[in-house]
Amino acid sequence: MGNDKPLAKWSQDTGDVIKDTLSQLAEGLTGIAASDRKELVFSVGHILQSLRKGLFLSRFLEEWNAYRDKGRVKDDYLGTEQHQACLQELLEFLDHDSPDEIRFETLKKIFLVAATETASDRTSLLPYQFLRLSRGMSSGEIIVLNATYQIAKEGFQEVSAAAQWLEIIASRSGLKHPALVEIHEEKLIQKYMILGRRHTDRSGVIVKPHFRLTSLAFELCEYIANYEAS
Questions:
Q1: What is the dihedral of CA 22, 26, 27, 30, to 10 degrees?
Q2: Helix (H) or strand (E) run with residue 83 in it
Q3: Class of 139-224 in CATH
Q4: Residue, of 160 and 41, whose pLDDT is higher
Q5: Cα–Cα distance between 103 and 99 in angstroms, integer?
Q6: pLDDT surpasses 60 at 5
Q7: Contact 224, 110 (CB under 8 A)
Q8: How many other C-beta atoms can be found within 10 angstroms of the C-beta atom of residue 139?
């Protein structure tokens, strides 16, 4: 990621890569449909996941093409190591994970913000790292992170008790149950996205300066906030 020189072996436009992937996906689904009944029964989950993958890819391709048509992505950016690494990460997420709407939208936004080179330049290591971090989070963790970020940006009341913080996030995020927020809170602490609790009984929290978001998490959320729909 430190070398920003275009790679000579990169010959396809990113849109063509997505089109090829969609074509291969369609061929795979056709093959499943032609298989015998027993094999088809065992492939139902794969079919559903493939259909969702195709939907996400089609949406991404449409938006990518719109970005390119409007000149928001420079031609020579496509050959950079940053772009290729980020594209590979996005495609591997769709290919190997179980993609969902929230996680896909988050990764897509990071990818497109990086491509416009408005919030970072092509030599920056952060876009790829942000993609990796976001890919490693569940949709619930992203929901909690986003709700915390919105409150941090608005300015917030002083909170010192963990129970109160959980109530606020549960209400703002739509998760409703503080216990559900707490499940995601523990994971986010482990991933250095929010600050841990204090006191021996773990009842207290330090909310300043970003309502418990770490500087890393706050910068990640700020980066995503630079996204503009095509």
A1: 170
A2: helix 81-96
A3: mainly alpha
A4: 160
A5: 7
A6: no
A7: yes
A8: 16
Q: What is the CA radius of gyration of the chain?
A: 20
Q: Which range is least confidently modeled, 40-54, 89-103, 149-163, 213-227?
A: 40-54
Tell me the one-letter amino acid at 140: G
Contacts of 53 (CB under 8 A, 6+ apart): 25, 94, 95, 99
- Residue-wise DSSP of 41-64: HHTHHHHHHHHHHHHHHHHHHHHH
CA distance linking residue 80 with residue 64, whole number of Å: 17
**Integer angstrom CA distances of residue 165 from 16, 64, 174, 211:** 46, 38, 14, 9
Parse the chain into domains and list their residue ranges: 14-134, 139-224
Q: Structure pTM? A: 0.81
Query: Could you report the per-residue pLDDT of 95-143, keeping only the tens digit for each?
Result: 888 889 999 999 999 999 999 999 999 999 999 999 999 999 999 999 9
What count of other Cβ atoms lies within 10 Å of the Cβ of residue 212? 26
Mean pLDDT of the chain: 85
Separation CA 89–CA 133 (nearest Å): 11
Give the separation between CA 168 and CA 211, rounded to whole angstroms.
Answer: 11
Whole-number Å distance between alpha carbons of 10 and 38 = 41
Model confidence at 26, in pLDDT bands (50, 70, 90)? low
Burial of 11 (0-12, 13-18, 19+ CB in 10 A): exposed
Structure tokens at 133: 């971090």
| Residue 205 pLDDT exceeds 50 | yes
